[in-house]
Amino acid sequence: MCELQRDIKFEDAMKRLEEIVKSLEDGNLSLEEAIKLYEEGIRLTKVCNDILRSVEKRVVLIEKLNGEYIQDDITDDIYGGLGQKE
Known about the structure:
By secondary structure, the protein is mainly α. The protein is 77% helix and 0% strand. The protein is built from 4 helices and no strands. The chain has helices at residues 3-7, 10-26, 31-65, 71-79. Belongs to the XseB family. Heterooligomer composed of large and small subunits. One of its GO terms (biological process) is DNA catabolic process.
């Protein structure tokens, strides 16, 4: 992962992902441009997922320290109850 993407904020990554999706949906790109944007989108998706996993771990730790261990509820909220737990 490049240095820029390692330091990118979640909100900035999501905004860029939205821009990429719009550009791809517009369909005014060459195949090469579309592939490059798609590749960037995949990298940003991984960055966002990594950030969300890190935040989830922090929340679980905070809840554990406060005696309110609720990991299953947090995981269900994050993944929409789809059973996508790691």
